[in-house]
Design the sequence.
């Protein structure tokens, strides 16, 4: 079996993973909620503005720093957004583990574990 075929199978497995499904569902719930979606849009707009200021070498004023803190608090107080972030972090952790396993396999490290219990190998722990 070619490595490209294996890569395609891995991609398909990731695409059908429970972790990705949970992340997508959390994102959909967040974006379908007007309060959460408006807050995300507002946060992204302000973040872009502050990045542009930083790129120009300008520092944020005390008022702008307070605005950032208040916006972060509002974001973290929204349960739908927090749930999405948690699901996204979990999915990203899975991708990092996959990349680590691939890198270690290429390097020839012993990765003898199964999907259910990684305690038997040094690859995941």
Sequence:
């Amino acid at each position: 079996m070619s490595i490209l075929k294996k890569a395609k199978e891995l991609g398909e497995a990731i695409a059908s993973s429970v972790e990705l499904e949970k992340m997508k569902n959390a994102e959909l719930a967040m974006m379908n909620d007007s309060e959460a979606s408006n807050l995300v849009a507002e946060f992204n707009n302000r973040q872009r503005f502050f990045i542009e200021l930083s790129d120009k070498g300008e520092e944020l004023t005390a008022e702008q720093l307070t605005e950032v803190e208040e916006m972060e608090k509002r974001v973290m107080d929204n349960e739908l957004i927090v749930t999405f972030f948690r699901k996204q972090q979990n999915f990203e952790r899975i991708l990092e583990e996959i990349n680590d396993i691939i890198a270690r396999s290429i390097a020839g490290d012993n990765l003898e574990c199964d999907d259910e219990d990684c305690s038997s190998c040094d690859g995941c722990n």
